[in-house]
Each structure stands twice: as structure tokens, then as C-alpha cells.
Design a protein that fits this description.
The chain is α+β, with helices and mostly antiparallel strands. Strand 14 and strand 15 form a beta hairpin.
């Protein structure tokens, strides 16, 4: 991991950046399979995958992420109780590693363990790498909200013991995911905070029934995880190209926010994260401390959707002050590189074009710092400005 304060300044490699985004535009992501992480990644029982850049220390982890890691160990049967799980993490018996380094995008505080089921996204044009995201847990007692209790572990058993295999069986052929993203954009979803159009259309496309339909139908966000992996697949083409200043990774771990650039694949630039600013959930006191940005769903915004697409999402934009929305739209216009022929939007955030006083931002759910309440609202969090200034990277 690299400290961004001493490592990055915008380069003048505009032609390489244009070429990198050109590869991204040609990617055609399809949902090919849903399978276990140990099968898809060769993930061992001694590794858990978390969102964002590497952690500074295994003994200094934000509480929601630590809760999620403990829930995963309880789900896997590797720990008998939370105290044992925490001890396993603290002593290094279980290692926490960035999910995006494994071509996986995991939401909020959620971790990925060996027995969890992942959606596999492939590029049928061959430009991008296969990418993955865990099956969405739905609303309520979910690990991604950073909670640790019996109901969270029970939900993990339902999602990864029953629902994952059901979704795998429902796939008779690969599903073109860009078409569902395009439908969402056309009908007012910015494809991060709001993905309900894609969720509904995709559910009607699948051959599922009974309990699966009931669960997915009550979860308007279930398309989100698939779209995270889709965006990661698109960006992976620029990662393979290996040149230019386009973003190819972005995410927060609840303490730091990190990015990667096409010209330095695998090299995280990170800095302290800030919490998302926005409305509180009903009944949540305004003074509850919000966790700094967490989650790999930031890849959605880092490719050009979410906070970079508020211009096409007036319903979500109305949750924020008009002046702030106008600034975000202006910043997005300055950052995005090339028109996508199927999505009707420009994609590719060029780090060399970040304007003075503005950075890319992320539409995010807000979690409580203490890991006791879970989801407490939503908002928008900017990338740390220090990621885009400093000494030129070698």
C-alpha cells in the first residue's frame, strides 16, 4: 500500500487514458454463473476479503468490518463465538485482504469467505477479466451493515446455503447486464443508491419461483451487487492495458479510502476517508456518529455512475441541496472521458482531469461507527482530495 500524499500527481498521459477507456467501452459484461468463493477464486478458509484498500493493522479495524468478519467466521463454523472470532483475527490466524485484489467487489462492511456464493461476470468480447460479487443479503439483519448477532448469521446461511444455488440453477444462459443498467439509467436510476429498475427487470428475466421470488422481490437492491461486478469487469480492461490515469479500483474500508490507476494496477493509493453526508434513516438521531466511507460499491461511481450520474436521477438528487448537486454534475462533466454506445453516458474517470476544489464522489449508505445500529441513513462522500495531488509517482 502506498501513501498518496507522496506518490501521485496528475500525469500528462492523455492518449494512454483515452486508449484505456477505449478498451473499457468495448467490454460486454455477462452474468455467467453463481458459485462458491472457494471454487471461483480458490479462496482458503484462512482468508476473508474486505472492501477498500489494505488495512493498516489487523488489530485496528473499524467495528462494523470487525463485526462482519466475526459473523463470517461463525457462519463458516470456524469460531464458536464472537470472542473466539475476534481473537483469531487479532492473532493473524485469519487474514483480511482487499477483495478488489481478487477481482471481487463486496458491499459496505461485508466480507467474503470461502463458502459464500459469488456472481461471476465475464466479458464476452474478451477485453476484461472475470469479476465477482457476493449474492445480496437483502434488507434487515445483513452482514454488510456491520452488525453481529444471531439473525445476521442465520441470514448468511439462507443466502449462501440456499439462495446462491437457486440463482445458479436459474441461469440457463449468460445474461447481458448492460441492458439492465441502460434501462435503469433511462428511467431515473443512477445505478448505485437506486437500482430498483434493474432489480425488477432482472427478476422477471430469471426462471425462479417460490421463496426465491419472494425474497428477491422484497429487495429492490439485489441488482446492485451484480452491477458492482459489472463495473469492475469494465474497468478490468483498462487494468489489463496498464497505462493511463483512468480509475480501475475504488473503495473504503471504514478508515481509509483508496483508488488504483490503470498505469499502476495493484498499487493502492489511500488516505483517511470521510463519512457520507446526507439524510438520516427514519427514527435515527442526527447526532449518531457515521462511519467513514466503506464498501467496494464505490467502483460504480468510479466508472461514471452513482454520484457521477445525478444528472439523470432527479429523484435521488432531490435528497441533497441543489447547489451541491450542481457541483457534482459539473465535476462529473469534467472527469468522464468517453461515451458508452449502449449506456448513453460517458464513462471512465480520468484522475488527471480532477478539477481544483473537487473530486469524484460516491453515493453511499451510512453505517454507525459503533457497529450497533447498522444502516442509519445515506449520503454522498467525496474521494479524499489528497489522492489527486502530491509528488509524481515513479
Amino acid at each position: 500500500m502506498t501513501d498518496a500524499r507522496a506518490s501521485y500527481a496528475p500525469s500528462a498521459s492523455a492518449p494512454d487514458t483515452l486508449s484505456a477507456v477505449g478498451f473499457m467501452v468495448r467490454v460486454r459484461p455477462h452474468w455467467r454463473d453463481t458459485l462458491r468463493a472457494d471454487q471461483a477464486l480458490g479462496l482458503s478458509s484462512g482468508v476473508l476479503l474486505h472492501a477498500g484498500p489494505p488495512l493498516r493493522s489487523r488489530t485496528d479495524i473499524c467495528r462494523p468490518l470487525l463485526n462482519a468478519a466475526c459473523a463470517a467466521l461463525l457462519f463458516e463454523g470456524q469460531a464458536d463465538d464472537a470472542d473466539q472470532a475476534r481473537a483469531m483475527i487479532a492473532c493473524g490466524e485469519v487474514e483480511l485482504r482487499p477483495a478488489q485484489d481478487f477481482n471481487v467487489a463486496t458491499p459496505l462492511a461485508a466480507v467474503v469467505s470461502a463458502s459464500m456464493w459469488l456472481h461471476e461476470i465475464v466479458d464476452v468480447e474478451g477485453e476484461g477479466r472475470p469479476t465477482y460479487a457476493p449474492v445480496n443479503e437483502g434488507p434487515g439483519p445483513a452482514m454488510r451493515f456491520g452488525l453481529l448477532n444471531r439473525e445476521v448469521v442465520k441470514r448468511l446461511h439462507f443466502v449462501h446455503g440456499w439462495l446462491g444455488p437457486q440463482l445458479a440453477e436459474a441461469l440457463s444462459e449468460p445474461v447481458d447486464l448492460l441492458s439492465f443498467g441502460a434501462a435503469g439509467l433511462a428511467r431515473g436510476d443512477e445505478l448505485h443508491a437506486r437500482v430498483g429498475i434493474g432489480s425488477g427487470l432482472l427478476l422477471r428475466h430469471l426462471d425462479v419461483s417460490g421463496e426465491a421470488v419472494k425474497f428477491l422481490g422484497a429487495n429492490p437492491q439485489w441488482f446492485l451487487n451484480l452491477w458492482m461486478a459489472t463495473c469492475l469487469c469494465v474497468m478490468s480492461a483498462a487494468r489489463v492495458y496498464g497505462k493511463g490515469d483512468v480509475l480501475i479500483a475504488a473503495g473504503g474500508n471504514g478508515q481509509e479510502f483508496g483508488i488504483q490507476l490503470a498505469r499502476a494496477p495493484g498499487r493502492w493509493l489511500s488516505a483517511p476517508a470521510t463519512p457520507p453526508i446526507g439524510p438520516a434513516a427514519p427514527g435515527v438521531p442526527a447526532d449518531i456518529a457515521r462511519l467513514p466511507a466503506i464498501g467496494d460499491s464505490a467502483v460504480i461511481d468510479a466508472i461514471g455512475f452513482g454520484a457521477q450520474a445525478l444528472a439523470v436521477a432527479p429523484t435521488h438528487a432531490a435528497n441533497f441541496p441543489a447547489e451541491r448537486v450542481a457541483t457534482l454534475i459539473h465535476t462529473a462533466d469534467a472527469l468522464l472521458v468517453a461515451e458508452h454506445p449502449l449506456l448513453g453516458r460517458r464513462i471512465g474517470v480520468d484522475a488527471a482531469r480532477v478539477p481544483a476544489g473537487g473530486t469524484p464522489s460516491v453515493c453511499l449508505a451510512a453505517l454507525d461507527t459503533a457497529g450497533e445500529r447498522g444502516l442509519i441513513g445515506f449520503g454522498i462522500a467525496p474521494h479524499p482530495a489528497v489522492l489527486y495531488v502530491g509528488e509524481r509517482a515513479p
